[in-house]
Amino acid sequence: MKLQNSETETTKVLIIKEHFFKRYGLMHYLQKHFKLQKVDMATDAVSALNKVKSESYDLIFIDLECDGISNKELCDTVKKNLPKVRIVALSNLKKTYKICDAIDHGVSCILPNNYSTEFFNKSLSIIINGGKFVCPEVEQIYKAHRKESRNKSDDRIADLSRQEKKIVLLLCEQLTSHQISDKLGLSKTTVDTYKKRILKKLDVVNSVGIAVQAIKSGLYTP
Question: What is the model's pLDDT at position 128?
Answer without folding.
Answer: 82
